[in-house]
Amino acid sequence: MLPATARALGHRLAVTQSEGRAPSVVAGLVRDGRRVWAGGRGEVGAGGARATQYRIGSITKTVTAVQVMRLRDEGLVDLGDPLGAHLSTPHGGGATIAQLLAHTGGLAAEARGPWWERTPGSLRPELADVFGESPRKHPEGRRFHYSNPGYALLGALVEKLRGAPWFDVLHAEVLAPLEMTRTTAAPVEPYARGWAVHPFADVRQPEPTVDTGRMAPAGQLWSTVDDLCAFAAFLLAGDDRVLGAGSLAEMRRAASGPDAASWETAFGLGTQLVRYEGRLLAGHGGSMPGFVAGLWTSPDEGTAAVALANATSGPGTGPLAWDLLALLAEHEPPEPRAWRPLADADPDLVALTGHWYWGTSDHVLRLHEDGYLSLRPVGNAGRGSRFRPEAEGTWAGLDGYYAGETLRVGRRDDGTVTHLDLGTFVFTRQPYDPDAPVPGGVDPEGWR
C-alpha cells in the first residue's frame, strides 16, 4: 500500500469514528485474495484493529446462506423446494428455500417479542416460539420483505439435514476450512464491548449481549477484521472445500428488490447488492445492540472492504466500506490483465467470429478462453450475452437477455455455416441474407 493511499484510507476511517461518535471503528481491505490494509480508531481492544472481535449482526446471514448453498450443491435440497418438504415448521413451510434466502418468503420482519435482539433466546426455545400473532405478512414470492425469522428457519434446515447444531456445522464446513479461527457464536477475548451513545450528549451506556438462540442464524456471530477479510476473499474467488465460484456468483445475482423507489439496491441469495459510484457491490450490512458492521465486495475489481464499530447507531460502516473501495481504486487502480493469445483455439470457432446480423442490427461474435463466446450489439445498444460451450456443439447463455437460452450453429448438408440460431432468433452474415433460412422469408426483389 502506497503511503498516500494508506493516509487517505486512515483519514476516511477517522472521519467515520469522529463524526459517527463511535467508541471505536476498525476496517480492512482485500485485494487479489489477501488483506492489504487494516486500521483502527478510538478505543480499539487489546487485539488491535485486526484481531479484536466485534459482533457482525446480519453478515451472519451470508455465512448461513453459504451453508445452505452447500446443501444445494450436494443435492440434498433444491432452491425451488418448499421448506416444508424438508422441515416441519408451524409457519413458512410454503416458501421455497430460494425465497427465504432472498427475503421474498412473505414472513414477518422480526421474531416474536419481547425485542429479540435484546432478550435471550431461551424465551423462544422452539421454532413455533419465534413467530408472533401475524407471522405471514405477504404471499410467498410476491415482494421483498426482509425477514429475520426466515433465516431462523434456514438455520433449522441446516440442523435438520446435518444432524448437528447450526454453529457446529458452520464451524466445521465453512469457518475452519477458511481458517476463520476468531469467528465464534459467543464473544471470546479480546472483544469490543457494545455501547449505546446518547444522541444529544457525549455519554454512553453498555448494551446487553445475549445469545439469541433460534434466531442465531440471522445475526449471532462475532468476528474480526482478519477473519472477515478472509471470508470476503472467499466470496470473491470461491474455495472448492467450501463453495465454488459458480455458486457464489449465483448468490450475487439479484433475486429480489425493495420498493420501486430504491432500485439502486437489491438482494441476491443471502447477499445484498448496491450500486455506488459506478460500482456494483455485493455483501451485507449488520447491526445488533452495541454494534454495526459492513462487508462489501467489488467483484469486477477483485477487492473487498470490511468495517466494524461498537456503537448501536451513528457510525456508517456501510458507506465507510464503500468509500474505502473507491479510494483504493482511485489511488491504486488495478492493472488490467496482460493480453495473451489463446493457448488452443479451434479454427472452426475462429471462423465463426465477426459480424452477424439480427435482422438489420449488427452484432459481433468473439471467441474467448475454453471455447466461451460473447455476442454483443455494435455500440452495446441492445441485447448481448456471454455463452458457455455445452454438449453437441451448442452454447448456453450466461447473462443478460439470453441467460439460459441455447445458441446453435446452422449448417448446410456439406457442413458450411448458414446462420446462428439463438433462442429461435436467426443471425446471418449480412442483413436478411437470402442464402440463409430466415423465418418469414426474404423478399425476392431484395433491397430497393
Can you walk me through this structure?
The protein has 448 residues and is of the alpha+beta class. The protein is 26% helix and 23% strand. The chain has twelve helices and 19 strands. It has helices at 3-19, 48-51, 59-73, 97-101, 127-130, 148-162, 166-175, 216-219, 225-237, 245-252, 317-331, 347-352, and strands at residues 24-31, 34-42, 54-55, 195-197, 204-206, 222-223, 265-267, 272-276, 279-288, 291-298, 303-309, 354-358, 361-367, 373-377, 385-389, 395-397, 406-411, 417-422, 425-428. The N and C termini lie far apart (63 Å).
What is the fold's blueprint, element by element?
Elements: H1 3-19, E1 24-31, E2 34-42, H2 48-51, E3 54-55, H3 59-73, H4 97-101, H5 127-130, H6 148-162, H7 166-175, E4 195-197, E5 204-206, H8 216-219, E6 222-223, H9 225-237, H10 245-252, E7 265-267, E8 272-276, E9 279-288, E10 291-298, E11 303-309, H11 317-331, H12 347-352, E12 354-358, E13 361-367, E14 373-377, E15 385-389, E16 395-397, E17 406-411, E18 417-422, E19 425-428
Antiparallel strand pairs: 1-2, 1-11, 3-6, 4-5, 7-8, 8-9, 9-10, 10-11, 12-13, 12-19, 13-14, 14-15, 15-16, 16-17, 17-18, 18-19
Helix pairs in contact: 1-11, 3-6, 3-7
How would you describe this structure in keywords?
single chain; 12 helices; globular; 8-stranded antiparallel barrel; 448 residues; 26% helix; 7-stranded antiparallel beta sheet; 23% strand; 19 strands; alpha+beta
Describe the structure concisely.
Helices cover 26% and strands 23% of the residues. It is α+β, with helices and mostly antiparallel strands.
